[in-house]
Amino acid sequence: DIQMTQSPSTLSASVGDRVTITCRASQSISSWLAWYQQKPGIAPKLLIYKASTLETGVPSRFSGSGSGTEFTLTISSLQPDDFATYYCQQYSSYSTFGQGTKVEMK
Amino acid sequence: EVQLVESGGGLVKPGGSLRLSCAASGFTFSTYSMNWVRQAPGKGLEWVSFISFSSSQIYYADSLKGRFTISRDNAKNLLFLQMNSLTADDTAVYYCARVKGQLWSDLWGQGTLVTVSS
């Protein structure tokens, strides 16, 4: 099984900050990676797929990069609506999610 | 409106069975593959199972050990998850999700809670 490790587990930030979340795969997954945002009690929302392709309707302050085993999700200027938990998902071999990164208010 | 609506969750005793359903509307269900994903209380997301649009490809997470069965009825726009030999570790919100491209999901239901407890 491919394991996905996100860091940090929790991130404290302020509105306007640039935020970066890292996701590492236990083996190469090419660019077969997606990112999701989830708020409490609500289903996840797709942000990015194929490592760097922005889903339709997602604000351009979100971006993804990386390939192989290391990937990043960047929020260029954190907005109030962005405080949430973020998950990466590999789909190179079946599917595995990272453990999540909670972005909280500093 | 494009949506997925899960049902069938509830309280079940350890060792019991439950069948979840997911009703799709607003899109051509028969042309999309589907996922089940679960989330234990206070925990992260866990992929459970995948079924292709024609049911020709079916995958499961290794951790399920053959206890779950995914199926679909394209004529009725329904997705199912049959869950047997349930344990407390299966307690979670179960989401159905539409697959776009590979195994990533662009549309999710609201989830249905399964609680396994005596």
Radius of gyration of chain B from CA coordinates: 13 Å
Q: Tell me, briefly, the overall form of chain B.
A: globular
Helix content of chain A: under 10%
Give the integer mean of the pLDDT values of chain A.
97
Helical content of chain B stands at under 10%
> Which overall shape of chain A is indicated by the principal axes computed on the Cα atoms?
globular
**How large a portion of the residues of chain A is in β-strands, by DSSP E?**
over 45%
Poorly predicted runs of chain B: none
Largest sheet of chain A: 7 strands, mixed
The average pLDDT of chain B is 96
| H/E element sequence of chain B | EEEEEEEEEEE
Q: H/E series of chain A, N to C?
A: EEEEEEEEEEE
Low-confidence stretches of chain A: none
Distance separating the two termini of chain B: 39 Å
Terminal-residue CA separation of chain A = 36 Å
Give the DSSP E fraction of chain B (strand runs of 2 or more residues).
over 45%
Biggest interface, chains and residues, is: A-B, 22 and 23 residues
Tally of helical runs of chain B: 0
Quick take:
The complex is a heterodimer of chains A (106) and B (118). Chain A is mainly beta. Chain A has no helices and eleven strands.
Structural features:
heterodimer, A: 106 residues, mainly beta, seven-stranded mixed β-sheet, four-stranded antiparallel β-sheet, 11 strands, 0% helix, globular, B: 118 residues
What does this protein look like?
- The complex is a heterodimer of chains A (106) and B (118).
- With 106 residues, chain A is mainly β.
- Chain A is 0% helix and 50% strand.
- In chain A, a hairpin with a 6-residue loop joins strand 4 and strand 5.
- The N and C termini of chain A lie far apart (36 Å).
- In chain B, the strands form 2 sheets. In chain B, strands 2, 4, 5, 6, 9, 10 and 11 form a 7-stranded mixed beta sheet that branches. A 4-stranded antiparallel beta sheet of chain B has the order 1-3-8-7, with no helix packed on it.
- At the A-B interface, strand 4, strand 5 and strand 10 of A face strand 5, strand 9 and strand 10 of B.
